[in-house]
Amino acid sequence: MGFAVPPEAYGRFMGRYADPLAEVFTAFAGVGADSDVLDVGCGPGALTSHVLTLGAAASAIDPSPPFVDACRERFPDVDVRRGTAEQLPYDTGEFTHVLAQLVVHFMTDPVRGLAQMARVTRPGGTVAACVWDGPTGALAPFWDAVHVLEPDARDEALLSGAHRGHLTELFAMAGLRSVVEEPITVDVVHPSFEEWWEPYAFGIGPAGEYVQSLDATDRSELEAVARKRLGDGRFIVSAWAARGTV
């Protein structure tokens, strides 16, 4: 899947949502100044950055080499490693909070990934994850436009955790206790249609890969449909967040 991309491209594509989401998500997860946090699937560091502003200790891991390099450069005092959620290279019970922002739906094995997150969390500590809601998340307007032209196109609404209750199911299967799942939202203003649309051509994730699969005519048609449906303005996007206790 298309995540081996320049960090600045990812920032323009998803950072505009991930940065404000991090503030809401860390509050949901109960991160404070005394927390020792692992950011699983850190990307270029949106969540890590907010954890540090709270005064908490942070470590980070991601499978994408460009993201790992960018995160190391951005946070030279943070332990940033390359690896996957399914094989976390940390000792058992090493962290108070282990978080995954917009990651569970891209895990090869979400239950194993969450179980690994639980393993490296101290007894009584918190594992938390959030993913975009399929119908109302950050990528929903894009896929709504796609479905006007290709009703059967496979979108991201079926990815792990993308509907109410699925994160809870995955957390329970991973052995987590006292699971709480809630919707969280962020309000993002797009100054122009072009600012919203252009990053979809970067080839990031399923949406970007879909755009790159189109020829020039089909891409222009999709852009026209999206422009007609969306115009300019603000989007309120929704995610599902779950937390559980080890």
From TrEMBL:
<keyword id="KW-0489">Methyltransferase</keyword>
<dbReference type="GO" id="GO:0032259">
    <property type="term" value="P:methylation"/>
</dbReference>
<dbReference type="InterPro" id="IPR051052">
    <property type="entry name" value="Diverse_substrate_MTase"/>
</dbReference>
<dbReference type="Pfam" id="PF08241">
    <property type="entry name" value="Methyltransf_11"/>
</dbReference>
<protein>
    <submittedName>
        <fullName>Putative methyltransferase</fullName>
    </submittedName>
</protein>
<dbReference type="InterPro" id="IPR013216">
    <property type="entry name" value="Methyltransf_11"/>
</dbReference>
<dbReference type="GO" id="GO:0008757">
    <property type="term" value="F:S-adenosylmethionine-dependent methyltransferase activity"/>
</dbReference>
<dbReference type="InterPro" id="IPR029063">
    <property type="entry name" value="SAM-dependent_MTases_sf"/>
</dbReference>
<feature type="domain" description="Methyltransferase type 11">
    <location>
        <begin position="38"/>
        <end position="128"/>
    </location>
</feature>
<keyword id="KW-0808">Transferase</keyword>
<comment type="similarity">
    <text>Belongs to the methyltransferase superfamily.</text>
</comment>
